[in-house]
Design a protein that fits this description.
β2 and β3 form a beta hairpin. The protein is globular, with a radius of gyration of 26 Å. By secondary structure, it is α+β, with helices and mostly antiparallel strands. It has a domain of 111 residues: Immunoglobulin-like (Sandwich), CATH 2.60.40.1930. The strands form two sheets. Strands 1, 2, 3, 4, 5, 7, 9, 10, 12 and 13 form a ten-stranded mixed sheet that branches. It has a three-stranded antiparallel sheet with strand order 6-8-11, with no helix packed on it. The chain is built from six helices and 13 strands. The chain is 21% helix and 37% strand.
């Protein structure tokens, strides 16, 4: 695979570097422009920067990956847990810190809650680098709850949309999911009259750790109904802890806003807006909606702290510490032979 400039090269180019590059190139371009018409040859096609060169090998890998993901989606929609988890590498980890076992448990619980859940993925881009690949996807999921929760005479409806990347690695002749990153995620579950009620839930997609940010819900309240709401925030980790937050009325402005302090554990956060609908006398629950938003937390730079706090000699890096770790390629089929990793 041929790259003219990689991402690291570009990130290292300051404005001054770009100006220096221009000073070198401009005289060369001007000299070429002064050549006589008789000496001017047809210019060679200029290669598109940052685009990987498609070869027979990458074309074959692309077909393999598309086939792998199509099969993965079919297995997921069939709720075949064993076969779905076989698509994951034994050392899988995602950007929320969840490992393969955690994802297996969460997937099983999700299917039990929404037994008809289905997902559809739209592949936006596949980048291939030898035995590694990154797949950008947009995923939509729908489903209905397994029972008539909260006393309603109908089941809850699930709607979910997310965007992110799947990270794949090829072990021998088989591709496996070694990680994923969710950049954007919004989920809505509604019961009763809340199914038809428009809800807007606004929050930033990423925030620096320790910083304040605000989240806001807005609804179009149907006439003859009373609405309460709240917004809770949880760090994304497994297992989840329950959060309680008092409800506030929404009938006057149809909106509710909360200021939140981002955690300093560098863990991503899940915001949940809960909205209840009742009759005016508030004696009968008419509708209920849960809307979630993901907020990715960006670690604060620790450079200044490290500079001001020199390490003791006993903590200084030794030559042994500086040795790179050995890279071991492991076939997932031999996973049972490996010593289990401690969490």
């Amino acid at each position: 695979m041929i790259w003219f400039l990689n991402a690291q090269d570009v990130s290292n180019l300051s404005k001054r570097s770009l100006l220096s590059l221009a000073l070198v190139l401009m005289p060369l371009l001007a000299s070429a422009a002064r050549a006589s018409d008789n000496d001017v040859a047809s210019p060679a096609p200029f290669p598109a920067l940052y685009d990987e060169v498609e070869t027979s090998a990458t074309g074959k890998a692309r077909q393999e990956i598309q086939s792998f993901l199509t099969n993965y989606e079919s297995l997921w929609n069939a709720h075949n847990l064993a076969q779905v988890m076989a698509c994951y590498a034994h050392d899988y980890i995602n950007n929320d810190g969840l490992d393969k076992d955690s994802v297996s448990k969460l997937t099983q619980d999700f299917w039990q809650t929404y037994p008809d859940a289905r997902s559809q993925s739209n592949i936006k881009q596949i980048r291939i680098d030898n035995n590694y690949a990154t797949v950008q996807t947009r995923d939509v999921a729908t489903g209905t709850s397994n029972k008539d929760n909260y006393g309603f005479d109908n089941k809850g409806e699930l709607q979910s949309i997310s965007e992110g990347q799947l990270y794949l690695r090829k072990y021998n002749d088989e591709w496996r999911i070694v990680g994923d990153r969710i950049d954007y995620e919004r989920v809505r579950v509604a019961f009763g009259l809340a199914k038809a009620m428009p809800v807007t839930f606004t929050a930033p997609e990423q925030v620096k750790s320790g910083r304040q940010y605000s989240a806001r819900i807005e609804i179009n309240l149907p006439p003859g109904l009373y609405a309460n709401g709240n917004i809770t925030c949880q760090t994304l980790k497994f297992p989840q802890s329950s959060q309680r937050e008092g409800f506030r009325p929404l009938e006057s402005t149809g909106s509710l806003e909360r200021v939140i302090q981002a955690n300093e554990e560098n863990r991503n956060e899940l915001l949940t807006a809960t909205i209840t609908l009742s009759n005016i006398s508030r004696s009968n629950l008419k509708g209920l909606a849960f809307v979630t938003r993901r907020v990715n937390i960006i670690p604060q730079a620790q450079a200044n702290k490290q500079k001001s706090e020199p390490r003791p000699e006993s903590e200084s890096e030794s030559e042994e510490d500086l040795k790179p770790e050995e890279s071991l390629e492991q076939d997932p089929k031999s996973e049972s032979k490996q010593k289990p990793e401690s969490n």
